[in-house]
Write a structure and sequence with these properties.
Elements: E1 6-10, H1 17-28, E2 31-34, H2 35-48, H3 56-62, E3 68-73, E4 76-81, H4 88-91, H5 94-104, H6 107-119, E5 126-130, H7 133-137, E6 144-148, H8 151-160, H9 167-176, E7 189-192, H10 198-211
Parallel strand pairs: 1-5, 1-6, 2-5, 6-7
Antiparallel strand pairs: 3-4
Length: about 220
């Protein structure tokens, strides 16, 4: 396994973790991995085929039937499904928002994607955001940040994006699932973005990572 360093950014929906990870990747020349987009790609294929996301057996049976490709383009990871590449707008549709936590709770889905996420580390230093990066994907990295915000602020952010999914329901599903639940990783620095501009959140995260020994 490569010893390239990884920054793990975890947190609930609409906390700002994706924006923080993207800014870190741009400013520090890192590969940015959006692990949530990978779970959304699986959800996209499940729904595209007209399958029931709550039928675990059907979803698990689908996994080996599909070529799940992962590559890096312009410093960010892209997941392909057979010969198709779903757009980010497709991956953020209300239908996928409603089903992704169900798909992400399936152990076989998580095992498949966690393996692919770890493989990215062979390519160079990276920043990865998600819900179990510091607890499961890279538990040994010293560079762990948990970005959070109040439920009301996160609900407002999602509404401003035009999404109508209930953040509290996604939080409940992600926190209560048996496999890799959403929680603060041991040793993670907690950053509350509720009342901060994104520039201030990024600055605070950078400061904390440098304190932890990251060489910017």
């Amino acid at each position: 396994m490569s010893q390239h360093p990884a920054i793990a950014i975890d947190g609930p929906a609409a906390s700002g973790k994706s924006t923080v990870a993207r800014r870190l990747a741009q400013d520090w020349q890192l590969t940015m991995v959006n692990s949530g987009a990978m779970y959304r790609a699986v959800t996209w294929e499940v729904l595209r085929r007209g399958l029931d996301p709550e039928d675990t057996n059907v979803v698990v049976a689908l996994l080996p039937q599909v070529s799940w490709g992962c590559q890096v383009r312009d410093g960010q990871t892209v997941m392909t499904v057979d010969a198709s590449e779903p757009s980010m707008s497709e991956l953020k549709s209300d239908a996928i928002n409603a089903a992704v936590s169900i798909i992400a709770a399936i152990p076989e889905v998580r095992a498949l994607l966690v393996s692919k996420q770890r493989d990215f580390l062979t390519l160079g230093p990276l920043v990865m955001e998600g819900r179990d990066i510091g607890t499961v994907v890279f538990p040994d990295t010293p560079f762990k940040v948990f970005v959070t915000a109040s439920e009301e602020v996160r609900r407002q952010r999602r509404a401003a994006e035009g999404a109508d999914d209930a953040v509290e329901e996604r939080d409940r599903r992600d926190s209560e699932r048996k496999t890799s639940p959403l929680r603060v990783a041991e040793g993670a620095v907690i950053v509350d973005s509720s009342t901060l501009a994104i520039e201030d959140v990024v600055a605070q995260v950078k400061e904390e990572l440098i304190k932890l020994g990251w060489q910017a």
